[in-house]
Amino acid sequence: MGVISAYRLRLERRRWQIRAIRKRHELEIFADRTASVRSGAILAFSTIRNERQRLRYFLKYYRRLGVDHFFFVDNGSTDGSAEYLAGEADVSLWRSDASYRKSRFGTDWLNWLKFRYGHGHWTLTLDPDEFLIYAFCDTRPLPALCDWLDQSSVRSFGTMLVDMYPEKPLTGVRYRDGQDPFDLAQWFDPGNYVISRNPKYGNLWIQGGPRARAYFAEAPDQAPSLNKIPLVKWDRKYAYVSSTHMLLPRGLNNVY
After folding, report:
1. Which terminus, N or C, of the chain has the lesser number of Cβ atoms within 10 Å?
2. pLDDT at 33
3. Most distant CA pair in the chain, distance
4. H/E segment holding residue 52
5. 91-95 and 69-74 strand pairing
6. Is the pTM of this model over 0.85?
7. Would you kindly state where each structural domain of the chain is located, as residue ranges?
């Protein structure tokens, strides 16, 4: 990458950081337990709206995996999500009625919270229906993975999103509050994936899976991207550009 291109990316990163700082005014604290976050804690960040039914298992899964504290932004839930989370001792919660789209689908809000609270911590950025699975995760929790990444001088950990679905039509499946979703959704598309390299940011761009097959068969290049970089040793100089698909500085995207 040339000097001019690198300079433009630095300016872009600064722009996203300034935007996130400004967007902090759209957040209202609802449950503040940030004083309990210790040095070295592993932190999880998520934006939600009407996800009450998913939250019990989401918290259970990541607590077992080794997350120490959760940071949520509730964007106008009406199903009791905020009230449920406010009662959890390892959760800090903000609320916002501002536009999800105009926050770049929550990216600005979470960039701000990581800028404020995530510096020096390993941070996970997730949707409430996403579950991180990595080699030996059943016996080696997140602290072991993060220790290995630290010892290897690796600052970010890349993944591929695999959409899981049930054998039966969705209309014939009922999910219970707190249930392991993989009890119901055990199927996935094994091979209809396309991978390319994003020349500007350097990350892989992965598309395919059941959503591409069902909804984008005539325009596969418009299918949702499946590349994710959810686990990052955060620094105030960092910023997500597009959800968790890519970050700046550019070197954080070299994870595959």
Report:
1. N
2. 98
3. 56
4. helix 52-65
5. parallel
6. yes
7. 3-253
